[in-house]
Amino acid sequence: MARDERETLLEVHLALPDEQFHRLKFLLEEQIPAGLLLPASRPELCRILLQRFPGNSLRVTAEILRRLGRLDLIQRFQLPLEEQIPEETPQEPSRDTPKVRGDPPSGCCPGAIPAPPVNPRRLTDKDLMQIAQRLGKEWQEVGILHLGLERSRLEQIQEENPSNPVLWNFEMLREWRRRERQEATVSRLRSCLEHARLDPGILDFLQSLQED
């Protein structure tokens, strides 16, 4: 089991571009001393995680990937998460208990906070512009840490739209939507942004879209 866990961790780390791998180590500083993390290579980080979180390293890694916006890796490697990732396909209601709006999906961890109703519709340009108008000066931090975008692409967006911060935010969100394709939904973006440092009005706005 330990060998499978180590191999999975290493494959996940190898799937991350260098910038996101460094961001992963930065976020792990909340739980592991920076002196151990900063010089660690991918294999060394696997060893540290296995030692620090025996039997739980994949769950810890999945939580960091969720904060990086890399839900695709969580799903590809079937990593465990404390909170279930919203699925695009609605789950069948129980035959014994009628499904009530707001109930947690079947298979959710016992005691988990019920997730808000999922709206599977994709975000429109108008939605993205309204979000862009609320994003502040930390837009690059949001793009890299929470949307999983590359710094080089964000710098390119900034060069293409000089002196227009709202357009920087808008094009960043459009880039995320292009990458996510059919999964660029209201619920997916809200999940990516819920731990970001931003105007609470953005999450309120996304919540209102989910409830429409």
UniProtKB/TrEMBL annotation:
Family matches, as InterPro entries: DAPIN (IPR004020), DEATH-like_dom_sf (IPR011029), Death_dom (IPR000488), DED_dom (IPR001875)
Biased composition (Basic and acidic residues): 93-102
Region (Disordered): 82-119
Domain DED: 4-79
Gene Ontology biological-process entries: regulation of apoptotic process; signal transduction
PROSITE patterns documented for this protein: DEATH_DOMAIN, DED
Death domain sequence ranges: 147-194
Any one Pfam family match given in the protein's UniProt record, by short name: Death
Name of the protein: CRADD protein
Natural source organism: Copsychus sechellarum
Phylogenetic lineage: Eukaryota, Metazoa, Chordata, Craniata, Vertebrata
Gene name linked to the record: Cradd_1
